[in-house]
Request: fold
Amino acid sequence: LTLETELDYPDAVSAIEDYFERGWTDGLPIVPPTPELVTACIATAGRDPDEILVRMAPIRRSCTVEKAAINAVMAGCRPEYFPVVVAALEAAADPGWKHPYWYILNASTSGQAPFYVINGPIRDEIGINSGVNVLGPGVRANMTIGRAIRLILLNVFDVRPGVLDMSVQGQPGKLALCIGENEEESPWAPFHVDRGFNVVDSTLTYMSARGTHPVENRVSQDPEKILLTFIDLMTSLALLSTPTTQRRKLILMGPEHAHLIAAAGWSKDDVKRFVHEKARRPRSEYDAITKVGSPSAGRHSDWDSIAPIPDRMIRSVDGVDYIYEHESPADVLVVVAGAADGGTSALVPLGIGRYALYGAEIPCAGVVTTPIRAPAAAPRT
Amino acid sequence: MRDATEIERRGVPAVAIITRPFKVTADSMAVRQGYPRYRYVLVDHPIASLDDNALREVARAALPEVLAVLGLPPD
Reply:
């Protein structure tokens, strides 16, 4: 499908039904991508329609500005959202991300979802939600920007369930996971400042989410007690199942938790250091759920065989070998989002920070922050 | 599948061994790599959770077909 494709329909409903028939949707109705709407998107980004934004090397496919715009319109994006979609694709093309992972994470049995955090003035300019129900539906910019990426994965890269997307179960977040940081209700500097940008910059940070897990503590105002609630979830065996390759965690902190912790004098770095220090589990507890101990366990008996656990992540304390959940405090990311109306937050375990293949360690950023170019003035449609 | 086709492209014979749930993926990937009729070997799933003895059994059972793909006699 390109701008040259001519598909004539008597009305929009016929177009919507035909797109379902052709398998060009994510299971929801699309907005028919008329040339006017697509052209408006491209104009807003101020980009050449034929420019390639990202390649998916393992399957030899790439996405141009024009194809991205067609799918953004189909997803329901307004033209002024399109620069954010462009930034999301540029983030996937970032050398730090490493191209194969753009494919691997979206094809993986683990069912990961692209997760976007938006910072800066663009949030207000185009109406990205960072407050109440931030992970839920209801706001057009959040839902349609996230959905645009899903439609691009399906329609441009052909990463379809059961063919190249082999998610065992997937997750609801695969429809759309795009949020703003609630900078206004955060007691700390914004996330993009942590990532080296200025507070007045608009940025998108791309991560791969293994899920979004609620973390509830309404029964304490003590920073340590609140953070121990996160740590208990982080160190559960279910999340430790890929201990060396996928350790990074995003703490998506509700403003109430953030304010209680900050009010006690804790900085974001204090939070990261505390979590790094306390998030550990005795190695014997890992081994208890692996093949270790079976008569012919052999060398494929534990996590080491999948991805060797570096010595730096194992520490012996009082004769007990502990595996540390994170390599350093930098593996813990903190973003403030949601409404300040309850003591709940979320933990987002992230895909890939480092990957071991055939004994070689391949670093992959797993977290990439990229600037969003301000939307060019475009006709409101 | 991609590893096997990349190795073949460098002139080295290779055999891709795929577990059954990934047959459609393997076929699709072979097409992407430009080898639409690429012959490979299917084995039972799962692999990751098997102990060494069970894994050896899978390998033993697959061996005749692996040799056949390479054009070698079964022994």
